[in-house]
Amino acid sequence: MGFFYILRRLLLIIPTLIVILLVTFVIVRLLPGDPASAMIGDRATDADVARINAELGLDQPLPIQFLYFVKRIVTGDLGTSFALHLPVAQVIAERLPVTLMLTGLSALFAVILAVPLAFIAALSQDRAADLAIREAFQIGLSMPVFYIGLVLLTIFAANLRWFPVGGYGDDFGQRLYHLFLPALTIAFSLSAILMRNLRAAIIGVLGAEYVNFARSKGLATRIILFRHVLRNALISTVTLLGLHVGTVVGSAVITETVFAIPGIGRLMIDSIYARDYPVVQGLTIVLAVLVSLIFLATDLVQAALDPRVAR
């Protein structure tokens, strides 16, 4: 994996971010209502609305607003929240670690669930264990994220009281404890997708000629499975995991609402209702950068697993 491959992948992020800036700017301004009315309330007069719009620069033509918007983004200024009256960067910085931890735990739980069960299903193809695993994951895949969250919340938090019903905790241990059920909620559907893909990939690799050759050489089954089968089967699954990062972030928005977690998903919903343009735009940009970096990491892992990708 060479330097120029990494540089090329980094440069591809730039046009993506430019398009996202433009689309975000336009879509936010197409939302019904206006920030001035949301800030002042129902008793706002036309004069009050005009004054607030002038202070915020919203009375300028859209091209001028967009140029100011891009200039601020380039200089690292995400603006000031209309509703919270705080720098957007500060507001996002307080919430982002929560969502990052939730997303990371969800991906980790999904991999922990998917990889061993995919192996069991592939090695017992079309037998009872395989059918049971696929059926269980199919149930998880068919249920909406918010419904899975409500079921887990009702059983393990409200009834059994093994986990808290919401919140985030104060230290690392408490945060893991509070985020266990939300992360498991997101991991159910993601692990089902990964398991099905990895199972099919393992079955395909098990029939490959180099695997048969390794068996004929007398290599131990453990070495064949982990050194030859798993490494090659993971290539497509890693790609699939990277492609579903956006889905995981979208699921985090719903899950944070169900479990009352103070992450950027909940902040996004509150900001949309409040017509808080700077926060919505800042969150969209931060999420776009985050997803782009995860796509880059996915490509690098792919190139490490299969050096032909980086040629």
Protein model, in words:
The protein has 311 residues and is mainly α. The chain contains 14 helices and no strands. The protein has helices at 3-11, 13-30, 35-40, 46-56, 62-74, 88-123, 128-142, 145-159, 172-206, 209-216, 221-243, 245-258, 264-273, 277-305. The mean pLDDT is 79.
What's the helix and strand layout?
Blueprint: H1 3-11, H2 13-30, H3 35-40, H4 46-56, H5 62-74, H6 88-123, H7 128-142, H8 145-159, H9 172-206, H10 209-216, H11 221-243, H12 245-258, H13 264-273, H14 277-305
Helix pairs in contact: 2-14, 6-7, 6-9, 6-12, 6-14, 7-9, 8-9, 8-12, 9-11, 9-12, 10-11, 11-14, 12-13, 13-14
Could you list some keywords that capture this structure?
311 residues, mainly alpha, 78% helix
